[in-house]
Amino acid sequence: MNLNATLWAQLVVFAVLVGFTMKFVWPPIIKALDERASKIADGLAAADKAKTDLALAEKKVVEELRKARESGAEVRSGAEKQAALLLEEARAEANRIVAAAREAAQAEASAEAQRIKEALRDQVAQLAVAGAERILRKEINAQVHAELLANLKQELI
Known about the structure:
It comes from Uliginosibacterium sediminicola. By secondary structure, the protein is mainly alpha-helical.
């Protein structure tokens, strides 16, 4: 065989092989590589988006914690104010109850003193009658001398 003919035959076979490869083999490989590159790019883009979303979420969490702390401080302050108000109202109510009890006790003591005075007047009147009876050595009728006893009670007042 001739070296030139072999070389030309090998060139033709190589050209057919290159043509076949470029037409049927190469496009699916390129397509698979392009799809893979597209998936990698999408994954990188999603990772970048996730990083930014994470940073935003962290900022939101920090802001929400700050708001929650402020809100908690406001609630605590309001509760302390309400507790102080309730304590003051309870003290005022207790003072009113004590004052009412004191007034009631004074009124009761005054009424009791009045009853005791009346009882003492009656006893003094009886003693006066008994004394007058002894002086006169005769019995005095309390019904007959009711006016005398009433006058004597009025004088003792």
